Amino acid sequence: ATTEIYTLSLHDALPISSMRKLPMVLLATAALPMAVNAANTEFSFGGFIKMDAMLSTYSDGDIAPANIGRDFYVPSTIPVGGQDEGADLDYSAKSTRLNMKTVTTLEDGETVTGFIEMDFLSSPGGTEVVSNSYNPRLRHAFFKYDGLTAGQTWTTFMNTGALPETVDFFGPSESSVFVRQTQFRYTMGDFDLAIENPETTVDGAVSDDGMLPDFVARYNIKSGNSNFAVAALVRQLSYEDAVNNVDSTTAMGFGINVSGKIMIGGDDLKLSLTSGTGVGRYVGLGAVTDANLVNGDLKASKTTAAFIAYRHHWTSKLRSTAMYSMLTADYDSAAPTTSTTDISSVRVNLMYNPVEPITYGVEYSMATREIDNGANGDMSRLQVSAKYSF
Predict the structure, then answer these.
(1) How far apart are CA 162 and CA 61, in angstroms?
(2) pTM of the predicted structure, to 2 decimals
(3) How far apart are CA 120 and CA 101, in angstroms?
(4) How far does Cα 378 stand from its chain's mean position?
């Protein structure tokens, strides 16, 4: 297949009187460069526009204005050990999302599927003073062909079908596997096998010295409208610091995740359990470091995390989800005493669809974080949102 690029200027091609008669869709399309494939690729666009308003209170401090914890729930940002209470009111549309999907049909009838997605969270380029002009960030960029997925997308260690519905961007983030990264994944029926980008967090800092990919295997189980997944992760933790004369050192990491959705009539129960050694960056948005450097050796941390969430449909347009989420971590006795050891949260929400593409939501959550020296802090948040999906 060949691709041709056409650029059309309406001012050169049509008089103003004719332009006024053109449909707006045609005007918008013709005013931009168009990519036209030889009748064998379908393009589709999607995403949503989402507005969030959050009132947050903290028992032991405050979160800085530019901190990502002001955009959505990031457990490691809960202040601990402070002397004063804090409170913030935030408005944002940064979770707004855009994506494009392509499906190319080959001569033999097989297809190649491509997908690109972006939003505006956790990115620089703007402030709330004047324009809120935030830069887009890449979420997904991958293609699928003949069982192979190549590019950046959700880690194979993660079961997206088990994530509960929340007003927050993520929700039970301390207990969920949540990583997007570059990978090669091969799917054979219900079995997935992947090699993925290795990154090691050591004492909270990122080490980019890994020479072996992270290996993931997942088995997907479906029973009626319910589904489950069992995933295993094996990885090499690696660290080297030539500046401070720390020789290369490695350790092994292992993890398992069991997750799924159980239908109970028209309601659903979602759950997840993750346990492992050296899997810190895969769970809790990096709240737990993969390993600590102790006397020149890597000592992997141990992590256990779980959530359970029940969604009830009050009517065809009104529903609620209630959930509990937790994480515990153990470190070597010589690890820094500021490492996170325990996080838990509860949340309940109410979601309403006046019409199919529009969702209004309100959610209340409470969370607690504790570090190794015993210091702790609490957060409470009331969040409302309005979302239009297309």
Answers:
(1) 33
(2) 0.86
(3) 19
(4) 23
